[in-house]
Structures are given as structure tokens and as C-alpha cells.
Specification:
Structural class: alpha/beta
Number of domains: 2
Oligomer: single chain
Strand order of the largest sheet: 3-2-1-4-5-6-7
CATH topology of the largest domain: Rossmann fold
Helix content: 40-55%
Distance between the termini: 28 Å
Radius of gyration: 22 Å
């Protein structure tokens, strides 16, 4: 039995002919932005998986202006689309209004997949805590978010029936920072194997997509690709400095930063300006989901130098595409990727530059590269969204049993 399997004690209500009973689950999807990243992708994938399960009767709680995105997943009466759009109003709605909606929905369990839960809920709550960076490194966030999410995480650890964490690193952090009375379940994220795979859908399809993003992204140029929001904990300035140190030896190479601007992105601007390599740093902004697999497949290496992650989904997606992955040791990405990735210490621009130099120069042993690639495929194959949903449903049953 693995640590993840051992993390969940399941109490299954009796069903027909020995089968588990159908559980009515209310999932709050109101925090998913129009352009989802990170946790937004997790919520989308989880909702899609739960919607097709025979053992789950799904209710979705969404923003009033987001009905069209969620209505195909549930029966008309099971979409509670009344949350306001702005975050402060939405959080107030959750605390003051969502409880009464849950009472009339017939739900057995409520899942708050983004740190928070209603103040007064008539049913047991499951809460996902993605990471503990609000405690570990509050300087990476706006102060208002630090205050809000610290309180939310502390309350979830104390009052939720179950807290779901995407990695053991995050689960351990919860125990470090909070008094935990909830059961804690580790439910790793999955990867969409149909989209993230080594083979492009048709010959030339990836090149055509990348040409639409930026004319510099051609098949004859080595690409170092980063995918993610440009925010402090991603440590993109260190990546820029590492690229600057080796760029002169690899004049055709480009650094691709694929992601929208987050809080603190000015530090990335400053690093690019200081490098003097502006024309060789391709900043795509937010990239549509259809383009990301093409970017990962076309990369010489995917570089994910994050200082801290709850899981690090782009790292798993890179492994599924068979692309060499460079990421940081002592983090959730190492927990997921293990020896299939090239690991460097967090914040170490010199060590990162050495690895990038080797990758761009083709100085990796072919046998070792092949072994890492095979290991990466095996890791990606074991991380499916269906498997993640299985663990979530076990957590819901645990919560329902605790509530009774």
C-alpha cells in the first residue's frame, strides 16, 4: 500500500447489492476565473470527472455570470448559479448565503476546492488546501490575500471534516502551521493524457500553433520553456539570469515565458531588461490551453524553477509530453517527478545555468536521457484525473460518515 492509499480511511455507506450508495456532492466552482490556471484547472478537471461518475450526484455552485460554462455538466436544477463576480462579494456570498442553498440542495457533502468553506454549513465540508505559502512566504502575496487565506486555512484545518492536499509536502505544511482536527487526504493532481502526449495531433500542427503565438517560435531554434503565471514564487528572475549566463554559448536559443502577469511581475521585467536579451526572451502572455501541449512538445527543455508549489502541474504535463524537465529540489515538483527530472537547488542561478548549458549543448548521456524519459512517462501514466477523482470521492464518503 502506498502512502497516498494509506492516507485515506474510507467509511462507505451501504448501497444496493453491496455497491456504494450514490453520494450527492456540492462543489463550489465560483472561484474559477474566465482564464483558468493552476487551481482553476484542478477544479475544472475535478468537476468534469465527478459529473460522469455513477456514484456521485453532482451539484455545482457557480457565479451568476458563469452559468454557460457549467450547465452542460449537471441537470438544470443542480446548478446553483447565484454567486456574485467580484471576489469580496463572492466570499461574502459564500459565508452568508451558500449555507442556505446547500440546505435546499439535498447535498450530503460540500467541497470548497479553493481554501474556503461556508461559515454555517448544514452538511459536512471538504476543503482543498493547495499550498501553505501564505504562512511559509507571505511576502509572495498581496497582504489582503495573506490575511484572508491564513484565516481560511486555519479554519478549514479545525472545522472541515476532511482537508484535501495535492501533495505530501502540502499536507506536512498544514500540520506544521495549523492545529489540524480534520482528516487529511493527499490527492495528487492528474494529467490529461489525450492532450499532453509526445505526439502532435497531425504533422505540422504544433508548428502552426506556435507560429500564431510568435513568429520566433520555429522548429530550428532551441526553446527553453516556462509555463505559469509570472509571480514571485515561480522565481522567473532567477531563470532569466541563468539563461543570460549561457545565452552567448547558444546564440540560437530562446527563453519562452508562457503565462500571464501576476502580482510582482515587475521583477521579471527588471530581470529581462538587465539581461540585455529582450529579443531572445519570448513573453507570450496568457496562452490558450490548446497551445500549451505544443509548447511543451517543442521545447528543448521545460524549466520550472519555482521556489514553492503545492503540486506543480506544468512539471507533470512536461513529463507526459516526454520533454526533459528541469525543476527544483526539495519541493512538491521533486515529490512528483523524482529522478525523472534534472533537479537544482531553489534560487541558485549558477546551478541552473550549468544545467541549461548541458541541455542546450547536448551534453546529456543518451542512455540517461532515455531512462529519465521512460520514468517520466510512467509517472504521468499513474497520475490521471480519474484516479484523483477516486481519492476525492473516498474523501467525500469519509466526510459524510464523520458528519453523521
Amino acid at each position: 500500500m502506498t502512502d497516498q492509499e494509506a492516507a485515506v480511511t474510507v467509511r462507505v455507506p451501504a448501497g444496493t447489492a453491496g455497491e456504494p450508495s450514490t453520494l450527492r456532492v456540492a462543489l463550489d466552482v465560483s472561484a474559477v476565473p474566465e482564464r483558468p490556471v493552476g487551481a482553476g484547472h484542478y477544479i475544472l478537471q475535478l468537476a468534469r470527472q465527478l459529473a460522469v461518475r455513477a456514484d456521485v450526484d453532482l451539484v455545482l455552485c457557480s457565479r451568476a455570470d458563469d452559468r454557460d460554462r457549467w450547465s452542460p455538466l449537471v441537470a438544470p436544477g443542480d446548478l446553483l448559479a447565484s454567486a456574485p463576480g467580484p471576489r469580496p462579494l463572492r466570499l461574502a456570498w459564500e459565508q452568508l448565503r451558500l449555507g442556505s442553498l446547500l440546505a435546499s440542495s439535498g447535498a450530503d457533502v460540500h467541497h470548497g476546492p479553493h481554501y474556503t468553506m461556508p461559515r454555517r454549513s448544514p452538511v459536512p465540508s471538504v476543503v482543498t488546501v493547495h499550498d501553505l505559502s501564505f504562512f511559509d512566504a507571505p511576502e509572495w502575496h498581496e497582504r489582503s490575500k495573506v490575511v484572508l487565506f491564513r484565516r481560511a486555512i486555519e479554519r478549514a484545518a479545525r472545522d472541515a471534516a476532511v482537508v484535501v492536499c495535492p501533495s505530501r509536502v502540502t499536507a506536512d505544511g498544514l500540520e506544521t502551521w495549523c492545529r489540524v482536527e480534520a482528516e487529511v487526504v493527499v490527492a495528487p493532481h492528474g494529467v490529461d493524457a489525450e492532450r499532453f502526449c509526445p505526439d502532435e495531433p497531425s504533422r505540422g500542427a504544433d508548428a502552426a500553433l506556435l507560429a500564431e503565438v510568435d513568429h520566433r517560435l520555429t522548429s530550428d531554434r532551441p526553446l527553453l520553456v516556462f509555463v505559469g503565471t509570472l509571480e514571485p514564487r515561480k522565481d522567473v528572475p532567477t531563470l532569466v539570469r541563468a539563461f543570460s549566463a549561457v545565452a552567448g554559448r547558444h546564440p540560437d536559443a530562446l527563453l519562452v515565458l508562457a503565462g500571464g502577469r501576476g502580482w510582482g511581475a515587475d521583477a521579471v521585467d527588471a530581470a529581462v531588461t538587465a539581461s540585455g536579451l529582450g529579443p531572445r526572451v519570448v513573453r507570450t502572455g496568457y496562452v490558450d490551453d490548446t497551445v500549451i501541449p505544443a509548447l511543451l512538445r517543442s521545447a528543448t527543455a521545460v524549466v520550472y524553477p519555482s521556489l514553492y508549489e503545492g503540486f506543480g502541474l506544468p512539471a507533470l504535463e512536461a513529463l507526459a509530453c516526454g520533454t526533459p524537465l528541469v525543476t527544483t529540489s526539495g519541493t512538491a515538483m521533486e515529490e512528483v517527478a523524482g529522478t525523472s527530472a534534472l533537479l537544482v537547488p531553489t534560487g541558485d542561478a549558477a546551478a541552473l545555468a550549468d544545467v541549461l548549458d548541458d541541455v542546450l549543448g547536448g551534453r546529456q548521456d543518451d542512455r540517461v536521457v532515455s531512462e529519465r524519459r521512460s520514468e517520466g512517462f510512467a509517472i504521468a501514466a499513474a497520475h490521471t484525473w480519474e484516479a484523483s477523482a477516486d481519492v476525492h470521492v473516498e474523501a467525500y464518503r469519509t466526510a459524510a460518515a464523520r458528519g453523521r
